[in-house]
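User: Could you write out the 3D structure of this protein bound to magnesium ion? I've included everything you need below.
Assistant: Certainly. Input first, then the structure.
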Amino acid sequence: PTMILSFANNKGGTGKTTTAVNLATALAQLGRKVLLVDLDPQGSTTVSLGFQKSKLLYTVYDALAQSKRIASNLDLAGAEVELSSIPGREFVLREALAVARHKYDAILIDCPPNIGILTVNAIVACDLMIVPVQSEFLSMDGLPTLLKFMRIVKSRAKTDFDYRILLTLFDKRTGLSKKVVQQLRTSFGDHILKIVIPRSIRMAEAPSKGIPGIIYSPRNSASEEYRRLTKELLEGSLAD
Amino acid sequence: PTMILSFANNKGGTGKTTTAVNLATALAQLGRKVLLVDLDPQGSTTVSLGFQKSKLLYTVYDALAQSKRIASNLDLAGAEVELSSIPGREFVLREALAVARHKYDAILIDCPPNIGILTVNAIVACDLMIVPVQSEFLSMDGLPTLLKFMRIVKSRAKTDFDYRILLTLFDKRTGLSKKVVQQLRTSFGDHILKIVIPRSIRMAEAPSKGIPGIIYSPRNSASEEYRRLTKELLEGSLAD
Ligand SMILES: Nc1ncnc2c1ncn2[C@@H]1O[C@H](COP(=O)(O)OP(=O)(O)OP(=O)(O)O)[C@@H](O)[C@H]1O
Ligand SMILES: Nc1ncnc2c1ncn2[C@@H]1O[C@H](COP(=O)(O)OP(=O)(O)OP(=O)(O)O)[C@@H](O)[C@H]1O
Ligand SMILES: [Mg+2]
Ligand SMILES: [Mg+2]
């Protein structure tokens, strides 16, 4: 069956896009058929894969508009306001994906850095939420509120809820990263993935080439960890 | 006269909060009377100054609600949707600040990582926009669209528009940061502030202590640059 993963965190710059792009690529390299959805109007996922936003004929907005609930002349940035006044607005993405779901082994959804209606749609549509958290204080601080919000959304939409926290941008040179990781493991236990993604400059260079990091620089430490994480997800939740 | 500065960028994690907090502190250390507004529902500015979000009696939401345009039982996260359907919604913050403006030398507004109605309010209310941009590709990529959007908002609200780009999280060990800075200087010329804020671990540690970085660790390289930037702003636009 198809596994739908969302990458969400209202804190900005925690590695949502980088994680979605590299996991999708690693799954494809293992022979899985993957759909990667860029639900962020900024379009970082789109740009990271070498596409030019201005040249796109269709975007996920058109898929959302198919649901006959919204007019389709706006762009994704406009969807936020347009969706907010529509009944059943949180189910629009789930309905749009239901049509395509059987064609893929996995569907990965990159979210914008907020908890607006687009992120709500991703929470409702997915089977598993992955919350990338930068190994720094401000990123850790907002986590309890975010998880509470996710739980409310899922219960209102009457769907099961499961999440994993992924620690990213881990800098082994500093005590700060280690402290944050320890603190999070104590408060969130098994919900924290054992694998931690290190900061590696090659990963930050990859988007300028329009190539996923694990292809641009397969041997760097972050690429290795993203491949290990993909295998772990396949053995665990994706395997059911 | 009072100078109103906004810190905005829809790309996440570019240093908006860190810049607002440290500039406000440096201005206060130079004897200026400063109002720092946390317009981000995440409350990173509030937390960086050691306040606990759950213990706040009032937030900026209450000031916005004074404008009689919106009901005041929601929190700032709710303002986004509530404001979106109100006529004159982009002027609410400017109106709320007009009452207090004369008491301060400077008002600094930290924005959430999106271009929703709260950021629109900050753009309309301010005299100068500071756009913190991380010295990395994805942060640079979204800049033209962001600036276009800001220009539209300002012209619709019939107010003057001026902006400066501040390069943050500059890592002198890598070629990527240098390349991004060079590219931005070529495309944006004088709109790029000469001063660049380096990445410094002390800066990232400060929020966990609830103290601004320039007080927590006055001698680190980022603190030095924030103090220099404050002096430059005082000699330039703030001085009129
Ligand atoms: N492992 C890594 N090592 C080094 N740099 C990284 C790594 N992961 C991400 N980055 C860089 O850090 C920045 C933030 O990452 P990214 O854009 O993926 O985060 P995001 O959560 O999607 O941001 P936003 O909140 O704007 O959507 C980017 O410039 C990215 O290239
Ligand atoms: N000069 C610096 N050196 C090292 N770390 C920094 C520096 N400036 C900011 N940081 C850290 O980088 C992260 C992102 O910074 P910050 O939260 O200020 O960005 P932001 O743009 O306000 O994020 P958001 O988009 O979530 O509002 C934080 O963990 C912060 O502590
Ligand atoms: Mg992103
Ligand atoms: Mg912030």
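Chain A has twelve helices and six strands.
User: Perfect, thank you.
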